[in-house]
Write a structure and sequence with these properties.
The protein is an alpha/beta fold. The chain has nine helices and seven strands.
Length: 300
């Protein structure tokens, strides 16, 4: 197993419900033991990219030759593309938004948040899966860092509807973003291929050889209002079939999900290892209504 230096780690600017930042050591045990002996001549594909903690971890510590990051949410991919292509412009817009925001008291800041959310939703259809919009990316980051617990939730129309997240310590100005971190991330992710598609449409014939595919889908039986497209029981079954397809192609495949009381995972993932992450539980909702036990499903 290769040696990995972990003295410096650039973190995602996004606060993301379900993020893997605190679980990467556990996930890495599977990565490093069963896959990373391939060295750096491999392709890493993440099908549910989200806040970025897992693929940023792999990019910094394991240096894949090629990395493809997908997410069905066009706001997520637009944000990362803007960080990648024009971080200075993104920071300029962020600085302007934050300056206006901080000029108000807390009641005024809540009103500012609600007004910006309204503008953001009014422009949501302008953002496609291929274009890049700096102002939408800046509003996305601002709303993400000032909404309740970083929860990205949409209604049936695809409108972002998470309420304002008033902090418990009102005497401290919020740390909304770090410009230096954005600029360093931009250099780090220059060669990452960002795509916005259904997860089944990401891997084409050009993805071959030594390939690691990581999936962090909406967890079974949990909150799934991440986008206007639902991810229920049928989608979980389709995901299991697709994971088997990738395994049959010779890819090393890993999925994170939540341990359930029934035999669903044992039934649909008979050809995979299923590992419970001992001592690891996560809130599946930012309101901490219920905790789930994490599991990893991966190629034998």
């Amino acid at each position: 197993m290769q040696e990995v230096k972990k003295d410096i780690f650039l973190k995602s600017p996004l606060k993301w419900a379900g993020g893997k930042a605190k679980l990467m050591d556990k996930i890495e045990e599977v990565y490093s033991k069963d896959f990373f002996w391939y060295g750096e001549k491999y392709t890493y594909v993440e099908l549910f990219g989200g806040g970025g903690s897992s693929w940023l971890f792999v990019l910094q510590y394991y240096h894949p030759m090629r990395m493809i990051v997908n997410d069905i949410n066009p706001n997520v991919i637009n944000f990362w593309r803007c960080v990648q292509s024009d971080p200075n412009a993104l920071c300029e817009v962020m600085d302007s938004i934050i300056s206006n925001y901080l000029s108000f008291d807390w009641d005024g800041r809540k009103e500012f948040f609600l007004n910006l959310r309204k503008i953001f939703n009014a422009n949501k259809d302008y953002l496609t899966r291929t274009n890049i919009d700096i102002r939408m990316a800046a509003m996305f980051l601002f709303l993400n860092k000032t909404c309740f617990n970083g929860l990205w939730r949409t209604n049936s129309k695809g409108e972002f509807n998470t309420p304002f997240g008033k902090p418990t310590n009102l005497n401290r100005d919020p740390n909304i973003y770090n410009k230096d971190n954005i600029l360093m991330l931009s250099e780090l992710i220059k060669k990452v291929e960002f795509v916005c598609r259904d997860y089944k449409d990401v891997i084409g014939d050009d993805v071959a050889g030594d390939v690691l595919v990581y999936m962090d889908p909406p967890y079974r039986g949990t909150w799934t209002d991440y986008s206007k497209e639902s991810f229920g029981e049928q989608e979980q079954i389709e995901l299991a079939h697709y994971m088997k397809e990738l395994k049959d192609k010779g890819f090393f495949v890993i999925q994170s999900n939540s341990k359930c009381d029934d035999e669903f995972f044992e039934e649909y993932y008979k050809d995979f290892e299923i590992k419970t992450l001992d001592g690891v539980q996560r809130n599946i909702r930012p309101t901490a209504e219920r905790k789930v036990q994490e599991i990893l499903i991966y190629t034998k």
